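Forum > Structural Biology > Help requests

Title: Can anyone predict the 3D structure of HECT domain-containing protein?

Hi all, first post here. I have the sequence for HECT domain-containing protein but no way to get a structure on my laptop. I'd be grateful if someone could post the structure tokens.
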Amino acid sequence: NSIVSEDTDGTCRTEPEVFDNSITLVKDRGQVFRLEDTDAFLTRCIEDPGADRSEADTLVDPYLRLIGEVLAWAALEHQLVSEGAAEFVSPELTRSSLLCMKRLLSAASCFVEHADADALMLPVLPHAGTFALLVVKFVVHKVFTVLKKFGGEEKLCLDAVNLLIGMIDPYATSLASAPELFDHLVQLDIAALPSRYFLYCPFPHSDH
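Reply #1:
Sure, ran it for you. Structure tokens for HECT domain-containing protein below:
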């Protein structure tokens, strides 16, 4: 079974069983997982994806631990592409990592209310701190690197843009103020991209 479901409108949600497992685990260990440990672990996954992270087994909620490993894989993949070794990266494999990132980041960034638990017991990604800023920067760099290196891969480019769009709700402020986003947009030939429409209209428009 999947740990994340996706609605027809693209909204991603963590399955209730994940929260139930986290609540049971916190009750068994007698304390919540420290936000500082979670933030440090997730940050390390992006900044140093090859590092040993085994100590996180007892410090980080298993769901967020899994998300960290997905981010570490995506970071290693990003290093290969950025360093000019794109020929060693499969577009289909990259699509898989983008899809996993989109669904997990979207689902785990949503604030959740649970009748049987305090909010601190639930596995939700940090919205403040080092990781919150870093993940926005990382996603922006990864998305635009894919658009530049694999501009002819329509499905891959669309998945990259969808990942960026999925960051809007949980990280709107950080994303809108990220200088990297505008730097990349200025340098990118949007008209040449197969998924250009979504980059022209990534944010919801107001009627005013």
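Residues 39 and 130 are 7 Å apart (CA to CA). The two ends are 43 Å apart (CA to CA).
Shout if anything looks off.
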